[in-house]
Write a structure and sequence with these properties.
Strand content: under 5%
Mean pLDDT: 89
Structural class: mainly alpha
Radius of gyration: 20 Å
């Protein structure tokens, strides 16, 4: 199984490495460029369609991996896709819906309300397909829920996480690095869970199939040169797909751990941790940041969905740090917050964990704010 996953990642990376330069070239020819303005930190036109390769390559690589599993007879994989084909199809259609809305936005532009419609549709399709939040594991003191409440919570989770990933996509490599970390985490956890629940292997395939093209994109996004036409952004097409995918994987993991608690010999570090912390810990920092940013915008009387420079990466940049330094700091903080949330949930009520993480995040922002004010005096 592990060799199949490694092959899937390698194929996805190679396809991404071939397709991303072609997308960059096409973007310059057709004028699909992200142009600089007073809010953005880049000063040269940069192609914004890099994320269009994520979904198609993930689909192709997933199909290749299933075909390989059939040819070499890996029964765990074949059983998953045989008995859950319809459910998987709903999830793919949901991902396709967001891919389509994101692509239209990157090509011609969409109002945020219209993008909300796409995210809601994707959430409904995911729920109908069987990937649903029906137990919050004590978050807000809520455990099992009626399916109608679960539908609303599932839709809210999809909309919230999708926008959290979209909002934090503000400097080279930030959203992609956070998503790559989350996908690597999910891939490893699902792979280890597969020995007790073969459905986990199916999610591991989905995860690895998406990691390859994302890693290829990161090479161009982080290290590419706008002047040499080797840089690209993922655009809403990429960020919306990744946000949907990561949220769907988190929901699936929470459900899996609800129905069958993790054995202590699978991942000892995660054993006895709250399933919601295990499932959503990797994206806790972007979620906290989007809450803070929306609250700040509302307090200032601004539209919470109109972009500004209130995100954590903007605050670090204002200290005089370079983009790569900010990238490293925020990704490291993402990992620390994930580890802390999971570890604390073993010993504390999950609501206390969330309050502790929010307080820590507030302190970090206040420290940065104070340093910025001292710097400007």
């Amino acid at each position: 199984m592990k060799y199949l996953l490694l092959i899937g990642f390698a194929v996805g990376f190679l396809l991404g490495a071939l397709l991303v330069p072609a997308i960059i070239s096409l973007s310059f020819k057709k004028g699909f460029l992200d142009k600089p303005n007073e809010r953005k930190i880049h000063h040269i036109n940069v192609p914004r369609l890099g994320g269009t390769c994520f979904f198609p390559i993930a689909m192709l690589v997933g199909a290749i991996m299933i075909n390989v599993a059939h040819n070499v007879n890996i029964p765990e994989i074949l059983k998953v896709f045989h008995y859950n084909g319809i459910n998987i199809l709903y999830g793919l259609v949901g991902a396709l819906a967001l891919f389509g809305f994101g692509l239209v936005d990157d090509l011609w532009g969409l109002r945020y309300r219209t993008k909300f419609i796409g995210q809601i549709v994707a959430g409904v399709l995911l729920f109908v397909g069987g990937t649903k939040l029906l137990n919050l594991q004590g978050v807000l003191f809520i455990h099992e829920m009626h399916w109608m409440v679960g539908l609303l919570i599932t839709i809210f989770a999809i909309v919230f996480v999708t926008n959290a990933i979209n909002f934090i996509d503000g400097i080279d490599g930030l959203a992609s690095s956070i998503c790559f970390f989350a996908l690597a985490y999910f891939g490893f956890v699902f792979y280890r869970l597969g020995q007790y629940n073969s459905m986990a292997y199916g999610f591991a395939i989905v995860t690895v199939a998406s990691m390859g093209p994302l890693f290829a994109f990161m090479m161009y996004n982080i290290f590419g040169s706008a002047k040499r036409h080797t840089k690209t952004f993922m655009g809403d097409t990429g960020s919306m797909f990744l946000g949907f995918l990561i949220c769907a994987l988190g929901i699936a993991l929470n459900t899996m751990l609800t129905e069958s608690p993790m054995h202590d010999d699978v991942l000892p570090l995660l054993h006895d941790a709250n399933p919601m912390a295990v499932a959503f810990g990797p994206i806790l920092l972007p979620c906290l940041d989007v809450i803070r940013v929306v609250l700040v915008r509302r307090r200032q009387g601004n539209n919470p969905f109109i972009a500004d420079k209130n995100h954590i990466h903007h605050k670090f940049l204002s200290l005089g740090l370079g983009q790569h330094a900010v990238l490293a700091i925020v990704v490291l903080l993402t990992m620390v917050f994930a580890a802390l949330a999971i570890w604390l949930s073993k010993y504390l009520d999950v609501n206390l964990v969330l309050l502790s993480m929010a307080a820590l995040w507030t302190c970090i922002n206040l420290i940065i704010k104070n340093k910025n004010q001292t710097k400007t005096k």
